Automatic annotation (TrEMBL):
It comes from the Eukaryota. This is G protein-coupled receptor. The chain crosses the membrane at residues 15-33, 54-76, 92-114. The keyword NADP does not apply. InterPro entries: Nematode_rcpt-like_srab. It comes from Pristionchus entomophagus. Keywords: Membrane, Transmembrane, Transmembrane helix.
Amino acid sequence: TSSQCHIFRELSQNAAYHIIVAVKGLIGLAGAIRVSQQWRKYGVRFLVHENTKVLFCFYYALNIIMAVIFALLYLFELIRLRYECFLFDFRYILLTRCVGISTILAAQQVILVISFERLYSAIFPAHFERNSSKKLALFLALFAVSY
């Protein structure tokens, strides 16, 4: 780990690296705040169907979680640079990065599920209206995330 500590010392003394990490953290924080404001201000009232509203709320939540995770990751990096050779266990880094990347993919999957739901409702409108529910939308959102 002496080579890692040497690299870490170089990074902790590099002002450009500090600026990049700080800017990335601020962008993540600003994104979380902006999406939260948009969700609070506009909500999902522009959507007509309840299933789509549930899925879109899930989409908003995933985007906020993603932005907060990345903002915290860069905040921890800034704090870590203040200490001498403070190395994280790789599992913590892997966990935070993977959760952030998973939420990016899950948010895209939710939009895909909304598209398929809208397609199904256009092809079979009577069946869709009889059988749609918030439970179905929640199941679809969880399925999209787990996939």
